[in-house]
Inverse folding.
């Protein structure tokens, strides 16, 4: 039986970690993820877990500790945000290339600079090419559910890649919402034991992460690329088993009122709740509005996303991080590339929004849909790279 | 894949390499010639050597084999030419000079 509770997103993830009882937890505090190691420290102090809790001196060290622990043969977890993730950058790549299925709770926060503590996706988007799996949540429930699924996905034999479970800083991490928790025994049974084939502490001598010469390094990068492809199947399998066990359904993305949608948004995270309210309002007025909330960004479900958008007239991809490439954000770039092979591509624009905690309300989302309706009607796309909610002395596009 | 290091060559396809280049045994650097980028080479002068064995523990690459209490010829497949043994030898029994290949 599920348990009805009221928890913040950080509490929910810390609760999941306690239920999983990992071998090692290594973290350095950084807003807004600090509460996760804080709550977990209490579990350690209370004897609620057997975890070795390592208080490191930096995020470079927390990820290094996780790498060593996971290679030694136990589950290693950490939590971080923003500059903390940037500080573990080198080791993020080492974790992935060493094929160690470490779990990282990422509480998304704007990456400095200018220094800012509020939510956007620039921290984990910056790590999008690091070889980590990335799952994003709309709310605390999804953050909890994703965390329960994380290890089984990451540890799948033909995957063996580290995984980030992302949630929006403050909006999700600190807001207390109703949540369904699962019983400890049911969670333990679902997650199962970690049984790697080779570890530093079992059997014969072993080396992890050796220097790779020209003759071998590209082959190992191809192994990683293939593992990322294999992860799609693993995610669907684990999600299906999760639905069977706990009754909540997950896939690569949630297609909300997309069946007959003529205009649609593609976005990630907590803004989905705001956008759903907007879609409902527009639907009452007869507007065929739809929404795709991406759950899985790595691996990128290009084929499935393109299929879901193939019948739409105009799409706005909502990027909650700046691309700094002069033509759009990362979600836009990948969504546009995914749709390139469609016989009839939807018109597509990029709306950069919510950067560094800039608020995004139902009315803002409605302006985007109204803009898409104009594009669908006239066939004129106009400016494709738009910043929403910014003060400007020029005529606003939206 | 749990291949031994000796069974992995520059012809092995990616599907048959170990994940992430993991190595499942010790001492595998013996299989690889890592001394080929040396620029200076050490030369053992046998008639000056007193077998004091000061050189062997100083060698960072275990390239001075010791057997039955006596050192033997340098392992030049693994010596990087750092010259530490030349520096510590009290008897000028090791020369250190430009390597001619």
């Amino acid at each position: 039986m599920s348990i009805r509770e009221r928890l913040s997103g950080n509490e929910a993830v810390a609760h999941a970690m306690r239920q999983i009882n990992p071998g090692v937890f290594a973290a350095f505090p950084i807003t807004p993820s600090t509460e996760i190691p804080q709550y977990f420290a209490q579990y350690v102090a209370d004897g609620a877990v057997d975890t070795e809790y390592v208080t490191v001196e930096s995020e470079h060290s927390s990820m290094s500790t996780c790498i060593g622990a996971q290679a030694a043969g136990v589950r290693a977890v950490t939590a971080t945000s923003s500059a903390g993730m940037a500080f573990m950058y080198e080791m993020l790549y080492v974790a992935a290339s060493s094929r160690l299925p470490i779990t990282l709770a990422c509480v998304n926060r704007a990456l400095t600079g200018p220094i800012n503590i509020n939510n956007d996706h620039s921290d984990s988007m910056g790590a999008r090419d690091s070889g980590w799996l990335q799952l994003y949540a709309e709310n605390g429930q999804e953050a909890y559910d994703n965390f329960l699924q994380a290890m089984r996905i990451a540890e799948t034999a033909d995957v063996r890649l580290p995984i980030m479970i992302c949630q929006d800083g403050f909006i999700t991490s600190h807001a207390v919402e109703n949540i369904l928790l699962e019983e400890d025994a049911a969670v333990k049974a679902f997650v199962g034991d970690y049984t790697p084939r080779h570890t530093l502490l079992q059997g014969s001598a072993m080396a992890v992460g050796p220097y790779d010469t020209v003759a071998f390094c590209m082959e190992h990068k191809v192994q990683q690329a293939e593992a990322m492809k294999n992860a799609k199947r693993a995610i669907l399998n684990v999600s299906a088993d999760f639905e069977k066990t706990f009754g909540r359904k997950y896939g690569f993305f949630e297609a909300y009122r997309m069946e007959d949608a003529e205009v649609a948004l593609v976005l990630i995270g907590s803004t989905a709740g705001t956008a759903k309210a907007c879609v409902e309002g527009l639907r009452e007025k007869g507007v065929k509005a739809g929404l795709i909330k991406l759950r899985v960004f790595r691996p990128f479900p290009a084929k499935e996303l393109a299929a879901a958008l193939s019948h739409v007239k105009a799409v706005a991809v909502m990027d909650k991080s700046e691309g700094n490439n002069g033509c759009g954000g990362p979600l836009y770039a990948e969504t546009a590339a995914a749709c390139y092979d469609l016989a009839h591509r939807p018109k597509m624009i990029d709306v950069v929004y919510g950067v560094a905690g800039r608020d995004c309300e139902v009315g803002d989302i409605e302006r985007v849909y109204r803009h898409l309706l104009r594009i669908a009607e006239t066939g004129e796309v106009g400016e494709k790279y738009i910043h929403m909610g910014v003060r400007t002395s020029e005529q606003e596009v939206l | 894949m749990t291949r031994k290091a000796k069974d992995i060559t520059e012809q092995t396809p990616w599907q048959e390499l170990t994940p992430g280049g993991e190595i499942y045994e010790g001492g595998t650097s013996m299989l690889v010639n890592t001394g080929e980028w040396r620029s200076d080479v050490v030369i053992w002068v046998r008639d000056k050597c007193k077998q004091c064995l000061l050189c062997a523990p100083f060698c960072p690459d275990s390239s001075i084999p010791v057997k039955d209490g006596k050192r033997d010829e340098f392992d030049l497949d693994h010596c990087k030419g750092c010259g530490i043994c030349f520096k510590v030898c009290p008897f000028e029994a090791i020369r250190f000079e430009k390597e001619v290949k």
